[in-house]
Amino acid sequence: MLKNSSLENEFMMYREIIHAVDIHRKAMKFSQYMFSNFQGSHFWLLIVGVVCLSLNLYGISETMLTNDVEQFITHFVFISATFVYFFIANYIGQKVTNHNEHVFFTVYNIRWYLAPLHVQKLILFLLQNGSRTFCLSIGGIYSLSNELFAMLTKASISYFTVVYSMQQ
């Protein structure tokens, strides 16, 4: 009776790990598929967004001299919308990366040495997949992350200062 219960537990563990591996694989594949559909347009949106952000920052600096409240609000709304887009897109990419790392650390911290050999092999498979960082990248150049958000913001402000200094 005890032996039968042990075999049943082992089978349940094996089946649940197979299910977890399959769900994780499908989630990664789905994320890559969804992102690959708009990867090209997202790249151009980032470039246009940096240019628009820089020019709208310059527009705000000019409207502060003329005290035109309507123009100030218009530029402010465009800047806010651009920042919101940059933040949300990069936040989603960061969450995907963080979730993948969480799965890896969860698998890494389980007591795999207590599991049967065939279950240990499945855990090893998850560890090998999780050891590589999974991120949504734009053409393999930039990964959507909080770091990219900061870089885009920094680039926009730098371009604004160049345009502003050239006009002075």
UniProtKB/TrEMBL annotation:
Organism classification: Eukaryota, Metazoa, Ecdysozoa, Arthropoda, Hexapoda
**At the top level of its lineage, which domain of life is listed?**
Eukaryota
In terms of PANTHER family, this protein maps to: ODORANT RECEPTOR (PTHR21137), ODORANT RECEPTOR 19A-RELATED (PTHR21137:SF35)
The regions listed as transmembrane in this protein's record are 43-60, 72-92
Q: Check the record and name the Pfam families matching this protein.
A: 7tm_6 (PF02949)
Give the membrane topology.
Multi-pass membrane protein
Instruction: Write out the GO biological process terms.
Output: signal transduction
Q: What is this protein called?
A: Uncharacterized protein
